[in-house]
Amino acid sequence: MKHVILLSTFLLLISFDISHAGNISADCTYNGIPLHGKVKIVENFEDIKVKVVENFEDLKVKPVQHFANSCGQWQFVDNFEDFKIKFVENFEDISIKYVDYFEGM
């Protein structure tokens, strides 16, 4: 009986982890949106809801000033964005952690 409970708990944890990690595709996109480029922060009509975390992030983001052309490189802009984000505390689409090096998944 203990083995069944342990196995059930293990499978539940794995399924939660997989479903949460599945938000970002292997090609570094979310719902077809490449997660690099020019990003505009908005309060309404966002493409992606983002939560900033310190641990267990979906994506490591490096803010850059120019040439945001690799996974996790975001150039924050006011106009001519590639996608729009809204920062939230709950019910995020993806979670990010800001980094200086080794951005991406």
Helical residues, percent: 10-25%
Strand order of the largest sheet: 3-6-5-8-4-7
Task: List the uncertain runs.
Answer: 11-20
Domain count: 1
Overall outline: globular
Largest sheet: 6 strands, parallel, barrel
Number of strands: 8
β-strand amount? 25-35%
Radius of gyration: 16 Å
Order of helices and strands: HEEEEEEEE
| Structural class by secondary-structure content | alpha/beta
In round numbers, the mean pLDDT is 87
Can you count the helices? 1
Distance between the termini: 38 Å
Question: Could you explain how this protein is built, in words?
Answer:
- The protein is of the alpha/beta class and 105 residues long.
- It has one domain (2-98).
- The protein contains one helix and eight strands, in the order αββββββββ.
- The strands form two sheets. Strands 3-6-5-8-4-7 form a six-stranded parallel beta barrel. A two-stranded antiparallel sheet has the order 1-2.
- A hairpin with a 2-residue loop joins strand 1 (29-30) and strand 2.
- The chain is globular, with a radius of gyration of 16 Å.
- The N and C termini lie far apart (38 Å).
